Amino acid sequence: MEKRVTLSIVLTLLAIVVLGAYINFEPDRQVAAAQRQRQEAVERGAPLFASLCSGCHGQRGEGKVGPMVAGGAYLQRRGIQAGDPNGMRLAEIEMRKTIARGVPKTVMPAWAVEEGGSLNQEQILEIAYLMLYGEEKDWHKVETLAAGGVQQPFVATGGASDPVSQGRQIYEAKGCNACHGPKGEGGVGPALPGFSEAQITTQVRTPKGTMPAFPPDRLSNDEIKALAAFIESLPKK
Ligand code: HEC
Ligand code: HEC
Q1: In terms of Cα–Cα distance, which of 235, 233, 231 is closest to 192?
Q2: Over the stretch 152-180, which tens digit does the pLDDT of each residue have?
Q3: What are phi and psi of 67, to 5 degrees?
Q4: Contact, 52 vs 176, CB < 8 A?
Q5: Rounded to whole angstroms, how far apart are CA atoms 210 and 218?
Q6: Hey, how many other C-beta atoms are within 10 angstroms of the C-beta on 109?
Q7: How far is the CA of 26 from the centre of ligand 1 (A)?
C-alpha cells in the first residue's frame, strides 16, 4: 500500500517535471521553426521580386518608378516598429492586399491570379516576407538575379511548343505584362500590337524612355522571336 502511494507520487512528480520541461522548451522550438519557414519564404520571394518588381521598385528594392520597399521603408512610412508583432501582422495583411490588387489609378499592377495577374497567394506572401523581413544578403541576391537575368526554366521547357504560347509565358515571366498590360493593351508602356520583331528587338536591347533594358543573358534572341510571335497574335484595335 505504502509502496503504491510512493510510486504514484513519484510518477506524478515525474509527469510535472516532464510537462514543465516541455512547456519551457516548446515555444522556443516553435519560434525557431517559424523563423526557419519565414527565411525559406524570403528566399523564394527573391527571384520573383527580381523578375517582376525590380523594374519599378529597384534591383535592391530601393525605389525607382515605385517607392522604396526594402530595409523597413514600408514599415517606416506607416510608423511601425520592425519586430512589433501586431504591427508586423498588420503590415503583412496590408502589403499582401496591395500586391494582390495593385494601386488603382497608378501604374502599380494587380498581381493576384484572381485579379488577372500571374501570382498565387503563396507567391504573394513570399514577396511580402522578402520586403518585410529581407536582410542585406537577401537583397544582394535579388540584385544579382535582376542584373544577371533570372533563369526561369519553365519558360524554355514548360510544355508549350508553339511560339505563341511560349511567347505568352515569356511575356509574363519577364514582367512585360506589368507595364504593357496582361494582353498587351498598354499601361505604363504603349499598347504592343503592331510592333514588329525588329522594333521589339531594338526596344528590349536599347530601350528608349523609362523601360528597363533586357540584355541577351536576360532575354535570348529565341525568346524575343517567341515574344514577337505572341505580340503578332494579339488582336489589333
Ligand atoms: C510598372 C511599375 C511597377 C511594378 C512592375 C510594380 N510596382 Fe509596386 N508600385 C508601383 C508604384 C508607382 C507604386 C506607388 C503607388 C502609389 O502611388 O500609391 C507602387 C506601390 C507598391 C507598394 C505599396 C508601397 C507603400 O508603401 O504603400 C507595394 C507593397 C508594391 N508596390 C509592391 C510591388 C511588388 C511586390 C511588385 C512585383 C510583384 C511590384 N510592386 C511591381 C509601381 C510598380
Ligand atoms: C517597367 C516597365 C516596362 C517593362 C517591364 C517593359 N516595358 Fe516595354 N515600354 C515601357 C515604356 C515606358 C515604353 C515607352 C518608351 C518610350 O517610348 O518612351 C515601352 C515601349 C515598348 C515598345 C515600343 C517601342 C517603340 O519602338 O516605340 C515595345 C515593343 C516594348 N516596350 C516591348 C516590351 C517587351 C517585349 C517587354 C518585356 C520583355 C517590355 N517591353 C517590358 C515600359 C516597360
Answers
A1: 231
A2: 433 333 456 789 999 999 998 888 988 89
A3: -70, 165
A4: no
A5: 18
A6: 24
A7: 39
Q: Which ligand is nearest to the CA of 107?
A: 1
B/e letters for 118-133, b = 16+ CB within 10 Å, e = fewer, are bbeeebbbbbbbbbbb
Number of the ligand 2 atom closest to the C-alpha atom of 170 = 38
C-beta neighbour count of 2 within 10 angstroms: 6
Residue with the smallest CA separation from ligand 1 atom 25 is 74
Taking the C-alpha atoms of residue 179 and residue 112, their distance in angstroms, rounded to an integer, is 15
- How many Å lie between the centroid of ligand 2 and the Cα of residue 84? 41
The pLDDT tens digits of the residues spanning 10-58 come to: 888 888 888 877 777 777 888 889 889 999 999 999 999 998 898 889 9
Q: Which residue has the cell 520592425?
A: 82
CA 70 centroid distance within chain? 13
Which ligand 1 atom is at minimum distance from the Cα of 52? 37
Find out whether the beta carbon of 127 lies less than 6 Å from any atom of ligand 1: yes
